[in-house]
């Protein structure tokens, strides 16, 4: 009887030893499944509910000034806001007139645009610091569309303001070139604003995250080259038509070189003198901005001096210089957009809407982070959208935030958007009283102002070596976006930049490799054996990590990389075995063939005897799609047929759900639903499996 008890005790101990280790398990929460109809009903009810509290909250969210104006600290903030608003307003006067030239508009419309944008953003914006108004890249895009539509309508590009085209204008009498140009720009602005408001309603403000800093910087630099090229004819006093289509930059330079014999000497001398004044003075402003309470408005001084010189020197009459011309005072009556133009400019308006929103959100988030507050991207979409929709009825063109003026605004003590109202008052004074005094201002002076303000974007070329050293992928995105925007087409440059960025992200998942891991002592620390010294591997167990999601685009690469790292491809191995079996059954004699079969079989057995379990660390695998699940099924099945167990460790809940829904777990096939939350648990479980080469169940 004692002998039987001892025998039973030994048998029990053997059973315990043979039983695999049970990994530490976490109890999963049972997620309550709510029918989609109830979810939809709840959301619709929340959005459509009508109560006084709901109306008040909606009003505060839609018009942010209602929230922050009652909290305005008048004594502490008013001086800074007034000073920054005054300085920005003074800078905006010459820049608004200059950028009207870039947008193919009369100077008065640039002043209108800056005036209305400053007021509307003050009411609707969530950023305290950005300056919304004319932006060079958008002016370029607007000018390209306007010039194209003028040509299609029959207006010669070098026509004067009294030339009429074959235009059927249902909103009023047939208008001249200037009238039709602002009609096109206003309709384009209205359509872009509608796009932006719709994107705000659809809560797609998150799209700004897909426009990286390198993409936007490359796009702005490429557009700056196009802007510079478009102003060369004004700097030289040449009367050249604006080049349309792809490769406009190269075509423009060719046209300029062909017409060098027609340079207006007066405009050339004026341009050189203005450049000699503005470039060094701008550099002085930048160098001593920390010591200066406000930047010195050298642009305004140059404009005043050039206007006086042109007026008293009679440059227009004597030398044929091209001047700004009559700038009326006051405001024109509002007019509706030309609805018949919308089909022609709908695509252009979408790209302009995206660029305007991306620039505005990028700047607002940058300054909000710097000063410790938050902005709402969707509300910014509404704000910039209405900054385009409402002014479009008052003969304005597209606006967005502008970096240069925002930096000036911040550096001169801006605290809130009250500074925007002060800027609007300065522009209102110019519109009502001062504007006609700029009649004799040469257009070459305006071109100089535009070119000088491109310095920041053009300096990016000097940062290319640094960008290349920091991140080559970002540098490549910058170079491709810049080159496409400048040499091919501005709008296409933005699209190409987005696609290149997407392919770079996709390429990183494509280039991910499987790494074999080793353990650092007894710690729960596993790293790449090829990257670190002193790591330990475990006999019979190989641990691998794939540092990317597994989905349809990279599942084949995952399997290929895994098989190469393991050194055993199940498909090739099974094919080789079938070939050997076939040769064996053919009863062929020969010592060489027998020796080859013997060596190959020994290699195969050696591999299997040294490896019985494969552990895959799934912590970097963010998600799986159907193709990814099928790839893991194929890996598990292939190795199981060769007697190698496959364990998946450290899977997140999303991956586990995908595996369950994809039918990966199948107890009938030996794949049991067991999670390993650490690699050590998976290795301990693998080492506790006594049977090898397919005798044990394969678990997950």
TrEMBL record:
GO terms for cellular component: membrane. Residues 575-595 are annotated as: Disordered. Residues 582-595 have a biased composition (Basic and acidic residues). It is a multi-pass membrane protein. Keywords: Membrane, Transmembrane, Transmembrane helix. The chain crosses the membrane at residues 77-102, 129-146, 180-202, 214-236, 256-280, 341-361, 382-404, 424-454, 475-503. Pfam families: STAS, Sulfate_transp. It is found in: Membrane. It comes from the Eukaryota. SUPFAM superfamilies: SpoIIaa-like (SSF52091). The keyword Transmembrane helix applies. InterPro entries: S04_transporter_CS, SLC26A/SulP_dom, SLC26A/SulP_fam, STAS_dom, STAS_dom_sf. Its main location: membrane. Residues 531-686 form the STAS domain. GO terms for molecular function: secondary active sulfate transmembrane transporter activity. PANTHER family: SULFATE TRANSPORTER. This is Sulfate transporter-like. The gene is LOC113093843.
